[in-house]
């Protein structure tokens, strides 16, 4: 059982998915004290996933989708401060210092600082025409660039890189993707699912180069003209998107002496070793009941569920966080959904026929279902989330029956 923290003045640093949800759930849960939400970006908090999807699609809407309407914050007495960055924490006086000169006292502090893009340390990385994608500003610049580009190079076949590659193909230019690993989405997907993803992009006309990292960018008069890969191959491009992953934003926590190991270290109730400070979302590393290890997730589900969870803890209902991780990605016609967290060594069993383009890879650990990767099979995904939350699992052998249906299995009464 985790002890109840004090909850008079709550300050939330970071107005992304996690921070906004924490503030919302705190007020909705009955918290009556002041809530201040500090966001470094100078805009109303918005949804990040559309930035690499609808926002980039030809004819798509370039308007940001707000996380909450503008009046929501005033109506809920949430003091939203946008365009303001927290620069230091004084844990002794329990004060946050802001770059506009303000000092905010807190009784409870929630760190929801998210993550920032990693930039490969190679020559030419600062040339004009090289884009990253994390913020609305990044997305606006990328969208404008895509509408003019004749050849696009994407560095990194992760989720953001592949979503941008699919959107770029839809705009018309030639698209090349360089990926250092031997398959796309290597950290997130089984070999079977990743193979299908690679095929979908190649069929769409993308030149997907596996086992090749970027060694240097080339340019003329300060503008990118292409890149040279680790294999020595030269690629021409007038627009580059670097999608080589993110690093958690932990500088504030680390400078205040909080432990950081690939994320701000929190316990199972999402609290740091300082009982007045919690951390949630992309910036936090928590012990997972699903893997038995410490993990840091980068997903909307994780950010919003942890935001809700931390609000409950602040309100006195602290309990271990057990949310089932899930994720989605849209890459052209491919709708990819993942429930659960993979570990190396999980056993893969196919559900459905990859040749149809609609199948799932079910992963088992010690004979129990732990992950379902669904490609254009949304019903499997929804069933998987229900099964994983209930701790239910089909026998792996049952999936080999072509008539087996995960959705039907999830409807069967649980056997004690
Ligand atoms: C292009 C893109 C597409 C994505 N697509 C998907 C998807 O399809 N599905 C999915 O599940 N996930 C997706 N994600 C991931 C998902 O958006 C993140 O996991 C989620 O945004 C994490 O929320 P967060 O609140 O932890 O962090 P963030 O959303 O990064 O928010 C953190 C905020 O804190 C602010 N901040 C940081 N430090 C300070 C400071 N010192 N002072 C003040 N403010 C500060 C930052 O400016 C930022 O606004 C995508 C991400 C990107 C970038």
Automatic annotation (TrEMBL):
GO terms for molecular function: dioxygenase activity; oxidoreductase activity, acting on NAD(P)H. InterPro entries: FAD-oxidoreductase/Apoptosis, FAD/NAD-bd_sf, FAD/NAD-binding_dom, FAD/NAD-linked_Rdtase_dimer_sf, Reductase_C. GO terms for cellular component: cytoplasm. Residues 9-307 form the FAD/NAD(P)-binding domain. Residues 326-409 form the Reductase C-terminal domain. Coiled coil: none annotated. Its cofactor is FAD. Keywords: Dioxygenase, FAD, Flavoprotein, Oxidoreductase. Pfam families: Pyr_redox_2, Reductase_C. This is 3-phenylpropionate/trans-cinnamate dioxygenase ferredoxin reductase subunit. It comes from Pseudonocardia hierapolitana. The lineage of its organism: Bacteria, Bacillati, Actinomycetota, Actinomycetes, Pseudonocardiales.
